[in-house]
Amino acid sequence: MDRRAFVGGLAAALGCGVSRGHAQQKPAGARPYRVGVLTTAFGPNPPVVLGVKAGLAELGLHEGREVFFEIVHTRGQLDTLPAGVAGLVNAKVDVIFAGIESPTRAAMKATSTIPIVFAQIGDPVAAGIVKSIAQPGSNVTGVSGLTTDLAPKRLEVLKSCAPSLKRVWAVYAHDDLSSAASARKSREAAPALRLEILDRPVRSHEEAVSILKTVARTDGLLAPTAPSLDITARVLDLAPFVPGVFDTPYWVKGGGLVAYGVDHEVQGRQAARLVARILRGARPEDLPVENSTKFELAINLKTAKQLGLAIPQSLLLRTDQVIQ
What we know:
Rossmann fold; 12 helices; 36% helix; disordered N terminus
């Protein structure tokens, strides 16, 4: 499945455009909680949001009964984030759930009083989202995907899949600080794997495409941790030709070669616990950022075959998801 079909199919399944929540009748009795959701996804219910909803339901906060969602999804358009979050603030939601760095930053700029819970941020300290994991400060807390810490492991599994690799490109948006930290960590780990990391921060989609066109088929790709400037999707386009490693199994299902990291829906379920605690009276500044606790290795054997790679049996035995 190519990247455009994968993303297009997801958009069609979820519904496209920017929306503000679901029209539902309020239950009788006490006022239900209102959770604002701000994402750059192509539809209102990407996996991380499905995870939040499922996690809250497990905690007794069911959608349409105890809790209602006001959802803003911008279809990758970062310039619409300020207006989207302004709508959530004006709606006086009880908490804002934000996916990845850009929506989280937009929410932080818009309000210092409404609690914000984030997910899908690989390194929230390096990204400047929180002061520290133990004491996040202000009105923000969330779940860290530990992307920086896992960078050497991702590099290791990529090398295991493609032993002849000598160079790996790290192309990411210049303001994607989690990906920048991950690239630095990868450079530190590279010599032991006899690899060279080509670190390439870019300022536009066009610049990213120009650089990616120079990647040789004998090279590898380290996908960024945030889908800024459509770079991750462009890396997915190259998956049948260049071996790449991703930070979540989601992209391997769409054709990427290998991933090691946190499933988005699982991370959403974990973030739901923080949302629930805040709704029930906890202050975000008193809730330490949680590290993800479940990591998955995923390999796409169809893509491996297209690349002419034979995945070692020892690696397959450790794999959580094998895509045929």
